[in-house]
Structure formats: C-alpha cells, structure tokens
Amino acid sequence: MISVGGQVGRIRREGMTLVEILVVLAIVGVMAGVVTLGVGAADRGMGVETEANRLADRLTLAADDVLVTRRPLTLAFDGEGYGFVRPDGQPTEGLEALADRHALPPGVTLIGLDTASPVTIDPDGAQPIASFGLAKGDQRWRVEFDGLNAVARPVTDEAT
C-alpha cells in the first residue's frame, strides 16, 4: 500500500493470479478427460473382442446351468448370431442372459471351426470340444469350449 497525499491506495499489477491459473488448468483437465473418454464411444461394445468374450462367458454360464439342472442345452448358431435352447423345446428359465437369441453387431461374423450347429452341452460331458471363430475386418478371435469352460483368444498371424 502506498500513501499519496494522505490517500491510501493499492497498486494494481497486470497478469493473472494463482487461483485464476488453477481454475483454467482444472477446466482444461476436465475437457481433456471428456475428450479421451468420448473417443471411440460409438464403437464401444461392438468389437469382435467384446463379442468373443461374451460368447465365452455365455458358454460357461450354459455349462454351469447344465451341471446344476442336469438338463442339456443346445447352442444354435449361424453367421449372424446364436441362441441357447433346451433340446426338448423348453425355454431356458431363470437365465435371462441365455433366454434370447443374441444378434451379432454389424460386421462381426461367427463360424464354427470344425464345429457344426447345433452344439449340445450335455450334463455327462459327452460332447466334443467345440471351437468358434469371430471376425470383423482384420480382427479375428477364437473361442474354445471344452464342455465346462470357454476361453476367448485373439488369433495372430503366427497361429494360423
């Protein structure tokens, strides 16, 4: 503070205060986070990796159901999707994840690798090992099912 001619006044300095700089940095940080999370949001959940993991999870869930209920389930599939049904035509009650046919997203295809549709999941484990391939563009995944567990793995050029 300076006293000039009996008046007390403040000297105003040019520039920004520390608080103003911190507020600007916080705003920039929030905007960067929004942009980062928004990139690729339109394709999220639509990729071949997601679908391969979803099929593996549903196969494992179906195998668990077969072991608990001692009633076989059948997986019917084609290039556009798949569904689980009881061989006797009864619905898969109590399993919402398996109740409806799952349609694959556009561009994702499903094929049986040395496996024909339908595949029966038997409580006695009498079914053979089943392998499925999922592809979208140049991305390829393989789902292997041994009757109890299913595993999804990416297909690399070295493995083919």
Explain what you see:
The protein is an alpha+beta fold and 160 residues long. 29% of the residues lie in helices and 29% in strands. It has 3 helices and 10 strands; from the N terminus they run E-E-H-H-E-E-H-E-E-E-E-E-E. The protein has helices at 18-38, 48-69, 96-99; strands at 2-4, 7-9, 73-78, 81-85, 102-103, 109-113, 119-121, 130-136, 139-145, 150-154. A 4-stranded antiparallel beta sheet has the order 5-4-3-7. A 4-stranded antiparallel beta sheet has the order 6-8-9-10, with helices on one face. It starts with a strand and ends in a 6-residue tail after the last strand.
Features:
single chain, 160 residues, alpha+beta, 4-stranded antiparallel beta sheet, 3 helices, 10 strands, elongated
Summarize the structure.
The chain is about 30% helix and about 30% strand.
Strand-helix topology:
Blueprint: E1 2-4, E2 7-9, H1 18-38, H2 48-69, E3 73-78, E4 81-85, H3 96-99, E5 102-103, E6 109-113, E7 119-121, E8 130-136, E9 139-145, E10 150-154
Antiparallel strand pairs: 1-2, 3-4, 3-7, 4-5, 6-8, 8-9, 9-10
Q: What can be said about the biggest beta sheet?
A: 4 strands, antiparallel
- Give helix % range: 25-40%
- Uncertain segments are none
Q: Main sheet: which strands, in order across?
A: 5-4-3-7
Indicate the structural class.
alpha+beta
Q: Compute the number of strand runs.
A: 10
